[in-house]
């Protein structure tokens, strides 16, 4: 687990630096310089492009992780780089053609309530193309256990460019067309830098271009898996974006913008989990290939416990300060209706990280076809709940729909992993962590609220974070976290840990 903890730590540091910039953008710059409608347009364009990108990449990122151990066995490492660089061009053309055939039907969903999106929807195509390559190269980097630089590009560089885009748009009084063009250029730059980085670390050279033929058995197995992931990937990403798309269709861009702000605030909770999953997935794939269930169980439990502690801390700190966050935001009163979206999505993320790596375990095991049932069930429940709840509860209904549907399907995934592999992620310490959440919320209730915004945030955060850290370390809820803290206290040991010495 050393490489997992070290790489996850580095990537999480980068992710939180990016989150700080993202908070500046989402909580301060967006509400100050952009209208809720333009914020909604931005989010709808990006979510549609991300959905299109996952559609077009045909399960390539997942196939890289699942079959990379076999590629190494056949000494196809050099060719993998070229396959993942050239094949997506063809897949994008084919899938893009299909997408264009149904374009008018898709656009018709937004004509009434989100006409501005209809005007600028063509930007979806280039953003999707660059996002597709960014996803593929990131996954390839993870299989080389190098995720920090791709994380920097995604979490920091893109957000710095976003800051520049907003400031140029607002201060130079640019039009919406120029604003959208700069967003497209940002994703082009991100994809290009990812390609250059992967090219360097993979040892590939243009002068040694090589496309070694893939053995028929491996080719058939990989193709079958990619076809399967093509279907499940569509469903998974539809579920992830369905809230934004349905709000845009049913409620308009202004409500989409408020939902986007609330969703971003809640998603901060899962940042460390993303890094851990990205670096853990190749190790899980290798262990499952060798049928090393003991190793799978160890990673499963340790990752779940670590992420429950970390994500829980962020959730607690977020919710005890939620009213102060809206007081801090420029025009915060316009976005207060997203408060309970933050609660619903925050709880969703807690459930996701505390149910551990169940979906990754299913995906990279021989039972991966069960993922299709997971996606179909999740998609059906989510869309049904959105159709019922959005007209009644607005954007809060979309948040509740996400919470309920993902809770139901995570229970199914937990049962499947336990039934097929005989493992589950929870221990007695998991129960203690959940109790710690409740204890902190209880203590917060008795902390007097101060009129001064910054004093209230500071005192409340200091008391609760000190309490949370004390209980975590005093009762040694996580061996891994305790070791990192000990190394952090001893600066020389901490530097060695970061360097991997």
Radius of gyration: 23 Å
Residue stretches low in confidence (pLDDT < 50, at least 5 long) are none
How much helicity do the residues have? over 70%
The largest pleated sheet is described as:
none
Give the overall shape.
globular
Strand content: under 5%
Secondary structure category: mainly alpha
Overall domain count: 2
Distance between the termini: 14 Å
- What is the average of the pLDDT values? 82
Number of strands: 0
Total helix count?
22
Output the helix-strand order.
HHHHHHHHHHHHHHHHHHHHHH
What does the model show?
The chain is mainly alpha-helical and 501 residues long. The protein folds into 2 domains: 2-426, no CATH class; 435-501, no CATH class. Helices cover 82% and strands 0% of the residues. The chain contains 22 helices and no strands.
Quick summary:
With 501 residues, this protein is mostly helical. It has two domains: 2-426, no CATH class; 435-501, no CATH class.
List the helices and strands and how they pair.
Blueprint (H helix, E strand, L loop, with lengths): L1 H32 L2 H21 L3 H14 L3 H25 L1 H6 L6 H6 L3 H20 L4 H24 L4 H26 L14 H35 L2 H15 L3 H19 L3 H28 L1 H7 L10 H16 L3 H6 L6 H24 L1 H27 L6 H18 L7 H22 L4 H11 L1 H9 L2
Helix pairs in contact: 1-8, 1-12, 2-4, 2-7, 2-10, 2-11, 3-4, 3-7, 3-10, 3-12, 4-7, 7-9, 8-9, 10-11, 10-17, 10-18, 11-15, 12-13, 13-15, 13-19, 13-20, 15-18, 17-18, 19-20, 21-22
């Amino acid at each position: 687990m050393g490489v997992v903890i070290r790489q996850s730590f580095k990537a999480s540091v980068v992710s939180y630096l990016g989150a700080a910039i993202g908070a500046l953008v989402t909580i301060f710059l967006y509400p100050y310089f952009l209208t809720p409608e333009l914020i909604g347009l931005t989010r709808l364009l990006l979510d549609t492009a991300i959905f299109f990108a996952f559609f077009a990449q045909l399960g390539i990122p997942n196939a890289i992780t699942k079959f990379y151990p076999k590629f190494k066995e056949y000494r196809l490492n050099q060719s993998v780089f070229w396959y993942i660089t050239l094949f997506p061009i063809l897949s994008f053309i084919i899938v893009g053609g299909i997408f264009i055939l149904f374009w008018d039907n898709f656009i018709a969903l937004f004509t009434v309530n989100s006409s501005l999106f209809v005007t600028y929807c063509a930007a979806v195509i280039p953003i999707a193309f660059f996002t597709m390559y960014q996803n593929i190269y990131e996954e390839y980097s993870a299989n080389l256990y190098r995720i920090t630089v791709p994380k920097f590009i995604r979490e920091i560089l893109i957000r710095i460019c976003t800051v520049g885009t907003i400031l140029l748009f607002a201060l130079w009084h640019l039009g919406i067309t120029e604003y959208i063009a700069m967003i497209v250029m940002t994703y082009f730059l991100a994809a290009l830098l990812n390609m250059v980085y992967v090219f360097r670390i993979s040892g590939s050279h243009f002068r040694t271009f090589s496309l070694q033929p893939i053995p028929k058995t491996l080719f058939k197995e990989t193709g079958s898996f990619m076809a399967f992931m093509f279907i499940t990937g569509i469903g998974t990403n539809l579920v992830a974006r369905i809230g934004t798309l349905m709000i845009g269709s049913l409620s308009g861009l202004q409500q989409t913008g408020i939902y986007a702000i609330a969703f971003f605030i809640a998603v901060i909770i899962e940042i460390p989990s993303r890094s851990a999953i990205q670096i853990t997935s190749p190790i899980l794939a290798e262990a499952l290939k060798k049928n090393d269930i003991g190793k799978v169980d160890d990673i499963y439990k340790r990752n779940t416990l670590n992420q429950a502690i970390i994500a829980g801390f962020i959730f607690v700190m977020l919710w005890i300060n939620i009213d102060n966050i809206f007081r801090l935001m420029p025009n915060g009163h316009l976005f207060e209706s997203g408060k309970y979206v933050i609660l619903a999505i925050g709880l969703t993320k807690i459930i996701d990280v505390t149910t551990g790596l169940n979906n990754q375990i299913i995906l990279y095991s021989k039972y991966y076809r069960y993922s299709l049932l997971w996606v179909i069930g999740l998609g059906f429940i989510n869309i049904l709940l959105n159709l019922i709840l959005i007209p009644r509860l607005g954007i809060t209904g979309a948040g509740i729909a996400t919470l309920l549907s993902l809770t139901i399907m995570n229970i199914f995934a937990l049962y499947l992993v336990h039934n097929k592999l005989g493992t589950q992620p929870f221990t007695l310490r998991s129960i203690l962590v959940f109790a710690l959440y409740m204890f902190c919320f209880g203590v917060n209730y008795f902390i007097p609220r101060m009129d001064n915004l910054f004093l209230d945030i500071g005192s409340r955060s200091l008391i609760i974070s000190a309490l949370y850290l004390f209980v975590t370390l005093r009762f040694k809820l996580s061996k891994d976290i305790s070791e990192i803290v000990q190394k952090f206290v001893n600066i020389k040991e901490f530097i060695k840990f970061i360097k991997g010495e």
